[in-house]
């Protein structure tokens, strides 16, 4: 579904991502592991069209998209759920969700059905649908950010650090929800520092260090990799 081939990205003289190769097949959950500043978020911004490649290509279903605008990329089926959620705090929960449905704004029946599906996935959002988004707890705000992304009915969802700042119980619930979204047909590319939780649900992963991919493999291979275990799993 998604192929990054020899992708590099520059900010002036700084190269936060250099010569990376990533493949995401339809129906997979793929995780990007690495510390803050390793290049994961830059990779997401590049896939989303918010940052242009300085070398290499990004392809969605074999079609190059690295020269396309973010709105066109969303229309093609890629949506990003950012690390800091970027909700509209003064707007209600439902108004925030409806913002995610903008690409389908002329298809009222489709929006209504998708909204129902989001509320079934996250019942607390239905209970608080009239409340300002800024009044929600951190876990509820993350649910809302994911729900808003789902409103565009993506083929591929980019989830950037969805567990950050959440209590362990909420983290478990969040990863269960991600699995459910995947089972219902959405391919997932996940950036995470919580390697144990992420690898438990992922098919495969890539490990970043200083803008480069240094290890890749199936979840089982990464769990068994001594370097990965010491650096990211604590064992």
TrEMBL record:
GO terms for molecular function: ATP binding. Keywords: Amino-acid transport, ATP-binding, Nucleotide-binding, Transport. It comes from the Bacteria. It holds the Pfam family ABC_tran. InterPro entries: AAA+_ATPase, ABC_transporter-like_ATP-bd, ABC_transporter-like_CS, BCAA_Transport_ATP-bd_LivF, P-loop_NTPase. The keyword Transport applies. Residues 2-235 form the ABC transporter domain. Belongs to the ABC transporter superfamily. This is ABC transporter ATP-binding protein. It comes from Salinibacillus aidingensis.
């Amino acid at each position: 579904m998604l192929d990054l081939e020899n992708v590099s990205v520059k900010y002036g003289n700084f190269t936060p991502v250099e010569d990376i190769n990533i493949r995401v097949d339809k129906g997979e959950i793929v995780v990007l592991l690495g510390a803050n500043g390793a290049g994961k978020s830059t990779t997401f911004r590049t896939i989303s069209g918010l940052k242009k490649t300085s070398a290499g290509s990004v392809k969605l279903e074999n079609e190059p998209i690295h020269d396309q605008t973010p709105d066109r990329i969303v229309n093609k089926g890629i949506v990003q759920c950012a690390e800091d959620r970027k909700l509209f705090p003064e707007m209600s929960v439902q108004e925030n969700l409806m913002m995610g449905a903008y690409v389908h704004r002329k298809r009222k029946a489709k929006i209504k059905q998708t909204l129902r599906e989001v509320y079934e996935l996250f019942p607390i959002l239905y209970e608080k649908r009239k409340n300002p988004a800024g009044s929600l707890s951190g876990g509820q705000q993350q649910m809302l950010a994911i729900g808003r992304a789902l409103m565009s009915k993506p083929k591929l969802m980019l989830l950037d650090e969805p567990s950050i700042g959440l209590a362990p119980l909420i983290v478990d619930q969040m990863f269960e929800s991600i699995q459910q979204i995947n089972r219902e047909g959405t391919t997932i590319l996940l950036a995470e520092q919580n390697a144990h939780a992420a690898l438990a649900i992922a098919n495969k992963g890539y490990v970043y260090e200083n803008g480069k991919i240094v290890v890749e493999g199936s979840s089982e291979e990464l769990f068994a990799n001594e370097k990965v275990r010491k650096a990211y799993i604590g064992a």
